[in-house]
Amino acid sequence: MKRTIFFVFFVSFVVSNLSAQNWDINTLHRVNSWDNKFVRNYNKFISRSEPYVAIGVPVAMALTAWAKKDKDLLKDAVYVGTSVAGAFVVTYGMKYLVDRERPYDRYPDRVHPYSYESSPSFPSGHTASAFALATSLCIKYPKWYVIAPSALWACSVGVSRMNEGVHYPSDVLAGAAIGAGCAIVNIYVNRWLNQWLFGK
Predict the structure, then answer these.
(1) End-to-end Cα, the chain, rounded Å
(2) Calpha distance 167→165 (Å, rounded)
(3) What's the pLDDT score for residue 9?
(4) Total-model pTM
(5) Is 102 helix (H, G, I), strand (E, B) or coil?
(6) How confident is the model over 77-103, as a mean pLDDT?
(7) What is the Cα–Cα distance from 1 to 11, expressed in whole angstroms?
(8) How far apart are CA 67 and CA 47, in angstroms?
(9) According to the model, what pLDDT value does residue 189 have?
(10) Which top CATH class is 36-199?
(11) 39-48 own/partner pairs: CB under 8 Å, 24+ apart
């Protein structure tokens, strides 16, 4: 009886894993096939904007805080910046632990790469940083005019990485979860960091 249960469980696991893999590559194939000129240009721009926005926003906040001598804004800049940095560290550590092959290498007949990456595929670093930035901004400034553009930009980064052919949907979803998770955990980390940096 135990062997039968184990066998059924094992077969179910294998089948569900294959289904998940099929969903992953089938979804990627569809998104990667969007080759309308506007869609391609938009995704290319959004994908390339990620490092500049993710680094530029906290740096701009810090410079503005320094110029205005605004301690609260400086604290916010530290929180946003360390959220992005944390997501970057976690993501790149996981990339080399998991060492997942890029989809255009694994499925050259189904995925057209519009760009090439030297690092492993899982999880998406661009998406993690984008969601860390968006989530931390939304936590600090819970206004619709911050939440709406932040969420749109972060989601667009995730979609753009699939349209570029460099990430599976599961890479993007994992990156989004890591980025948002780092921003949430960093709320508690920054309580200690603020005491160390600012004395309270």
Answers:
(1) 62
(2) 6
(3) 41
(4) 0.86
(5) coil
(6) 94
(7) 15
(8) 31
(9) 87
(10) mainly alpha
(11) 39/163, 40/114, 40/163, 42/156, 42/160, 43/156, 43/159, 43/160, 43/163, 43/164, 44/114, 44/160, 44/164, 46/153, 46/156, 46/157, 46/160, 47/115, 47/126, 47/157, 47/160, 47/161, 47/163, 47/164
Indicate if the pLDDT at residue 19 is higher than 90: no
How confident is the model at residue 200, as a pLDDT? 57
Report the distance separating Cα 85 and Cα 58, nearest Å: 11
Average pLDDT, the chain: 87
Residue 12's pLDDT is 38
* Amino acid occupying residue 14: V
Q: In the chain, where are the structural domains located?
A: 36-199
Residue 101 near residue 120, CB atoms below 8 Å: yes
* Spatial contact of 182 and 90, defined as CB atoms under 8 Å apart: yes
